[in-house]
Amino acid sequence: MTIHQKPEDAAVEVKAPAGLREAGPRLHPETLALHGGSYRFDPASGAVAVPIYQTTSYQLPGTDGADKLFALEAPGHLYTRVSNPTQDAFEQRLAEIEGGAAALALGSGQAASAFALLNLARAGDNVVSAAGLYGGTWALFAATLKSFGIEVRFVDAADPEAFARATDDRTRAYYAESLPNPKLDVFPIGEVADVGKRFGVPLIIDNTAAPLTIRPFDHGAAVVVYSTTKYIGGHGTSIGGAIIDSGRFPWHEHEARHPNLHEPDPSYQGKTWLEKAATIAFHPYILRARAVILRDLGAAISPLNAFQFIQGLETLPLRIRQHNENAIKVAEYLRTHPKVARVIFPKFQEGEAKARADKYLLNGHYGALVGFELKDGRDAGRRFIDGLKLLYHVANIGDARSLAIHPATTTHSQLSEDDQLKTGVTPGYVRLSIGIEHAEDIIADIKQAIDAA
Ligand code: PLP
């Protein structure tokens, strides 16, 4: 178990690594992407790049030290299912870039959203979630968590008070995606975080579609989850996920609301997770997620994938800028095409949705997902996909390459047509994930595929 940041540091908005912190002002994401976290070089070799610690186990100190390690009373690694130095370097850097206090990296984004909730909710409890979700998350919430006895109550994200109305004594968390596709209507993070504060309910935001473009912690989210498979990895090579704790949610003030943190855990000397975390100056939510949920359910990230995600982080700010700038050009082009019925892109929204886009999306960017419908509907949408030459037809987003998919027959096909519509998937909808190629080349491919559709 490694301990990288102390709770008292959590009030500092974005922390620089020790050596650089003395340099003065808050560091920018571009700098944290390369220097965030305490790793500077490998003490054994002097290597500047983070080594891939491809090991399952670690030589334990004498029996005296080993029992302290196992009791989580001393820092150190025991077994790579639970922690690993490459993973640790990735977690620290990701937490700093996000403006959070501590992170847990996992084997996939699905594991991250499942663990974020299983860390708080038990059978008989409930979670209130926005209905606009990635299809895999929807299936997890509507079927698998239900079979575990955890009810997920879906509400309309456009109405923050709907979260209050769905809350009762057994509500353990609120959950939403910051920029849910396919609707691409930005979630009211601050408004719902404020509702949660009234009840002691933390807001968990899946920020997969908008790293650096939306900053959930600046608006009161308690926890951020990522599928790092997407923009953070950035090259379509590795599946991974992460949970980041803002370090600012007052778990200790809400005893009845959060029994998992307030009740004694017999597997750790009968201490509560708040007590356990306090004795080693760590964050209780991430500590429990690692020491209980990851210990018991696995879904560990491999050291090689943790390394790949560190590589991804190093160029994330650069790539995000290019993704976003290209997406604006593509969306604007699509609006001018006579065969296009509708373009779904935050820049073109109106009313409340546009106000939220302007409030939460930074730097004049709108994300890099663009949806559209062709006038000739479902069949034209399918012909468009088959006509693409440069864009890939894959079920992923956030790759450096531009991607396209027809959600109704792929990513959302396990949902009933009614449930598809609830998540915003109409039969003719085409989703583009705009990459970092030259914008003119992306547009030329889209044009020829639409013309032929
Ligand atoms: N959250 C969102 C918004 C996603 O788009 C995805 C995957 O597409 C996931 C979570 C699940 O992530 P993973 O595929 O890494 O398990």
Task: Give me some keywords for this one.
2 domains; 13% strand; globular; seven-stranded mixed beta sheet; Aspartate Aminotransferase, domain 1; 453 residues; 38% helix
Measured distance between first and last alpha carbons: 55 Å
Question: What is the H/E string?
Answer: HHHHEHEHEHEHEEEHHHHEHEHEEHEH
- Average pLDDT works out at 92
In terms of DSSP E residues, the strand content is: 5-15%
CATH overall fold name of the largest domain: Aspartate Aminotransferase, domain 2
Annotation field: number of helices: 16
Count of extended strands: 12
Radius of gyration: 22 Å
Strand order of the largest sheet: 1-7-6-5-4-2-3
Domains (count): 2
What does this structure look like?
The structure is a single chain. It contains 16 helices and 12 strands. By secondary structure, it is α/β, with parallel strands linked by helices. The strands form 2 sheets. Strands 1-7-6-5-4-2-3 form a 7-stranded mixed beta sheet, with helices on both faces. A 5-stranded mixed beta sheet has the order 8-9-12-11-10, with helices on one face. Strand 2, helix 6 and strand 3 form a beta-alpha-beta unit. Helix 14 packs across helix 16.
